């Protein structure tokens, strides 16, 4: 089962959100993230959180939604939504609205990718592309010319990346390293790591990244 | 010596950038980041990068700037600027324009905090506040009510945090954990870790974070 979870960061474009909704079997929104949905003509199946941010008239706005109150402060609303998705049988979860805005929220949300690496097919999408994490191996499907970046926050050993312009062969990656803005040369890339966790971002060709002149070389 | 480096992410507000400039002894801008400066009446001392993004008439726009061409692709422009800052005697470095925009750029730039943790007094600032990393201990000076968040991307052992509403005492922090939106109860907080690296974000009271209703509790 494929679950879409909308968090309260930067809202994806309406067209992307609509596509994501159509692809998902179940649509959860955390707390305040639901506020923008009525204007878009969309309704989540479940609204979950401590309800400190959702509009007071949420029950009226979403008459068919299930409201789940999760005041427990040991986990963030987004992590609670993830746990619920897993409880309900999710095998694949897409997070939207999980980036942008406050950097501390962005970092803890990217941290969730690391937390669930190897346990769940989990990705964060935004209008630029998608971000995933692996502690093992991953196939990234796309188009030649798509941008692919790998980030690490601790040394990663035995990193191999094929199907890209600058392949890596059993290499060591360090935090802040230059594995940014590689690009696909085939329909898919293969990424693997022997020890550590890799965070990989795949930017779609023709996506928002095309607004920048991207030479495929390392950028700040 | 305090060095300010402006990267090519989301531009800080003009007032923040002006304050940062005044505080710094040396102002470096990476490549395309310099483009916005003439309109603000500001000029960097050094422009550094592979010059694939800076305006063609940069020499004319910044007649007093030193241009350093760094085509080497083993490091990002921002890391190259950091290495130059250190070479020129920096003891403290502030990065601006290093967040926002593409998530892969944001992650690799936050990775630089991890790379230099314990070796340099390094921080990333934006209009919300500032983000630093520590593999040892740190004092965060601010005001009661300021928001403080700690993120990790690998398990961190022996984390202690005092001077805040929800202190931590020799605890284990895991990726995606809820150490977000704590708040200062004193003029400063003390953060330390026995094993691992902590990324700490300090949001100023009355800063952009105040736009959200922040109860000081965990958020997605």
The largest sheet of chain A, given as strand count, sense and whether it forms a barrel, is: 10 strands, mixed
Biggest interface: chains and residue counts?
A-B, 65 and 65 residues
Q: Would you report the number of β strands of chain A?
A: 14
In CATH, the architecture of the largest domain in chain A is 3-Layer(aba) Sandwich
Number of helices of chain A: 5
Structural domain tally of chain A: 2
CATH topology of the largest domain in chain A: Rossmann fold
* Helix amount of chain A: 10-25%
The CATH superfamily title of the largest domain in chain A: Thiamin pyrophosphokinase, catalytic domain
Sum up the overall morphology of chain A in one term.
Answer: elongated
Structural commentary:
The structure is a homodimer of 220-residue chains. Chain A is of the alpha/beta class and 220 residues long. Chain A has helices spanning 14-23, 37-40, 58-61, 77-87, 103-115; strands at 2-6, 26-30, 46-49, 66-69, 92-96, 121-125, 129-134, 137-141, 147-151, 156-162, 168-173, 182-183, 188-192, 198-203. Chain A has 2 domains: 2-127, Rossmann fold (3-Layer(aba) Sandwich); 134-211, Thiamin pyrophosphokinase, catalytic domain (Rossmann fold), CATH 3.40.50. Helices cover 19% and strands 32% of the residues of chain A. In chain A, strands 4-3-2-1-5-6-7-14-9-12 form a 10-stranded mixed beta sheet, sandwiched between helices. In chain A, helix 5 links the parallel strand 5 (92-96) and strand 6 (121-125). Chain A is elongated and about 55 Å long. The N and C termini of chain A lie far apart (38 Å). The model of chain A is unreliable at 207-220 (pLDDT under 50). The interface between A and B is large, with 65 and 65 residues.
